[in-house]
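Project standup — Tuesday

K.O.: blocked on the structure for the chain from last sprint. Re-posting the sequence here as requested.
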Amino acid sequence: MVGRGLGWVALALALVACDGGGVSLFVEVRSDFVPGVEVSVIEVTVEGQTQESAITRVDDLAEGRRVAAFEGLAPSDARRALIRLLDADRAEVVVRPVVFAHRRDRVVSVILTRDCRDVACGPREACVGGSCQPEGCGFDEDACVAECASASECAPSTCALAACEEGVCFYTADDGACGEGLYCDPERGCLPDPATRDGGVPDAGPLDSGPPDAGPPPATMSRLAVGGAAWEPFSAGGTAPTEVVRAAFSPPGRAEIVALTDSWAYVLTLGPAPAWQPPVVRDSLLPELAGVLPTAAFAVPGTTEFFVYATEGGWRYDWDPAPSATLQEFTAYADVPAEWDDPHAPPWFDVRGAFSSPDDAPMWVTADTSSECTGAGVGRYFAVLSSDGFGPRQLLTSIYDIDCPFRWVDQAPYGAFAPFALPSAPAPFSITAVARPGDLYVFRTP
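H.V.: unblocked you, prediction finished:
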């Protein structure tokens, strides 16, 4: 019955069931403008309501970001939304109106590309792929006139990559192709990074006092012991990860934590003398994850299964006997039915981690499921830490009961969920991964 709860974890939201109080609209934006340099605000207007989302250098507009959510709208066969990208002075960079059918809760994804900058279109038109087209094109049954058929028809700068996506040229900047203090402009190449210019006098001394080849610091961790009254710093022997830990899980039945970075898979053995084992190349252990940035992972209590999730979808593995992993199933983003009819379903835009528990012995979960499950309380469950990415940001903890009633049963703000309300709990948006082999462990940025 575990698979029934994977609607969120595979990140497959497309349409959401109606709740009887009007329909909801979620707006996602993808763009090849440089976040925090060319674009600082995204504004969305629907039915006279306007919502804004601040954009900074750490945002990834190329992958997409949910920027607005409207609740309680009357169903419409021709809903109109106006999306504007603004710079730091709130000057309009590019605008795109869109029209689509909105008879039930819906997510719409809108692409705004740099070849539409300075293009002015007439009434009921929108710039798509550098040309003016009907504002409803690209949604439902109305196709837009394609700007390209392949990436070879698009011409980026030397530091950017070109792709032909949905018939438009889309450029992805690669700041790593530029030198220190520079950023990649997809049209003009490497330019001075505004974030590195402070206008002050040059520093009087060296950048740091450490040896030049000391490398990045090891992973920072916090631990909440079973029955503990406060969080405490955690460290272990051996060579700890120096890259950001993207996802972590405890293999079923083993006193270990597997930590996944962009390049490596690390195993932390627990016990009286916890120690990091020599890492292995991540993609040799989990070859299906090549090129993937995981967002969460957890093992299913009482089984040999574990799951890894990313924006592409979810991978179900078998870890038996260990240390080996065999892919059992992949579920793509677009192929999982939406399961968002429960008010406790988590937002999926910004996932910070997930962990599983064999029971609710610590009494962290407040939900009462006894009326649905013949007197039984919450049993095996997994918890998801995530944020919706728009409006006043807050991290939420959402609970899925694996055994009964097979649904999301509880949700609370990060600081209201029992373990994260204890002293010295990690700052919510410092968290990069979570695992619970017994004690609760958090990987975080310093």
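K.O.: great, moving the ticket to review. The chain has a mean pLDDT of 82. The longest helix spans residues 6-9.
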